[in-house]
Amino acid sequence: MHLSKRILSSTLPGLLVLGVTFSVFGANEQKAAFDRSKAADGGVGMPTPYDKFLALDEVLSKGKVDWAKVARAYSKAIDTDEFKDTTVAIPLALGMRIADGVMTVKAKDAEQLNRCASDIEKLAKKLGVSDAEMSRGRAVRTAANKGDWLKVFMELGFFQQDIMKKLTDEKDPTKGTLIVVAGWLQGARYTAAVVEENYTPALSNILREPMLVKSLTEKVASLPSSVKSTPSVAKTTEALQQLGKLLDIPTEGTISKDDVHKIVAVTSDAVAEITKAVK
To answer: Percentage helix, strand, coil, to 5, in the chain?
Structure first.
C-alpha cells in the first residue's frame, strides 16, 4: 500500500477538511480517470481553505510553512461597527472573516482567533443569527485560550455550520452565496501566497479548481441585478472570471509562477474591495 500524492482539487467547499483527496491504493489498483462531464454541483457549503493547508503541509513537509506569518500577512482586520448593509457588505465580510478564522486555527494563534470569532459573532448577529445559535463561538474562544486546538477545529466547524443553516434561504440565496464566495476568495489568497513562496510546477496543481470556480461564477451570476451592480460584487464577478481562466488547467497540468502571482493579486484586490463595503 502507498499514499498517493496526487492532489485533485475540484471539490466544492465543505466543513473544514472535506475535499482532501489523499487516497490509499493497492500497488496494482487502477483509478478511473476523472470525467468532468459527470461532475455535479453539491450545493452551497461553508467556505474553508483548510483542505488546501493540509495538502500544502503534506507536499512541503509539515513545519516548512510558517502559518502564523501567513496569517499575519493576509488576514484582513475590519471594524464591524462600520458594516451596515445586510444584503451585500455584511455577508461578504462574514465569509472573509470565517476564512480568516480557519487560518488562525492552522496558525494556532489564540489572540487572532479571538478577534475573528468576535467579528464573526457581531456580523452574524447583524444578519439575524441569535445569541443561542452562536453559542459555539464562545466554545471556540474557550478552547483556543486553553490551547485545545483539536476542539477548536471541531467547534469552529460546527459554529460555521450553525451560521449557514440560519442564513441559507432557498428563496433568496444571496447571503449564503456571498458568504461562500468571499470565504473562498480569501482562502484562495492564502493558498496562492504559500504556493508562490514555495513555487514548483507540481505544487501549483494544488490551486487547480475549474469546476468550483465555474459553480461560484454561476451562483454569483444568478443573483439579483441590484446585488451584482454593487462595487464589491462587481469586483468579485471580475475576479472569478479571471481566476476561472487561470485555474482551468488539465488534471496533470501546472500553473506558471507568473500566473500564481496573478492569482494572489486578483484575490487580494477582490478582498480589499470587500473591506470597503461598509455602507
So the answer is: 65, 0, 35
